[in-house]
Design brief:
The chain is built from no helices and eleven strands. It is mainly β and 116 residues long.
């Protein structure tokens, strides 16, 4: 089972990025999928989650700016990030689990750097 995040990069404040997460090894259509991030020197924090029936959740710092989505046919997860801020700088990880309260699978992260 593998989750691989991609799409990170160096952008300026106000720019947009779209992260993708490709899942392989099993089908995650019945799983909740989520995004976490970890900034340098800080603890990992949840960003957003989407359930198997497409209900979405967002942490306050990203509400209104980030949009999570999934494509069950492609076994993929996405995070559209608009209005990026320097404080969004972090390594972003995708996850999968039975619900948005618990995750079983973690992927390698992708680094997002937002310059001011």
């Amino acid at each position: 089972v593998q989750l691989q995040a991609s799409g990170g990069g160096l952008v300026q404040a106000g720019d947009s990025l779209r992260l993708s997460c490709a899942a392989s090894g099993r089908t995650f259509s019945s799983y909740a999928l989520g995004w976490f991030r970890q900034a340098p020197g800080k603890e990992r924090e949840g960003v957003s989650c989407i359930t198997s029936n497409y209900t979405t959740y967002y942490k306050d710092p990203v509400k209104g700016r980030f949009t999570i989505s999934r494509d069950k046919d492609k076994n993929a997860l996405y995070l559209q990030m608009n209005g990026l801020k320097p404080e969004d700088t972090a390594t972003y990880y995708c996850t999968a689990g039975p619900s948005c309260r618990g995750y079983e699978f973690w992927g390698q992260g992708t680094l997002v750097t937002v310059s001011s």
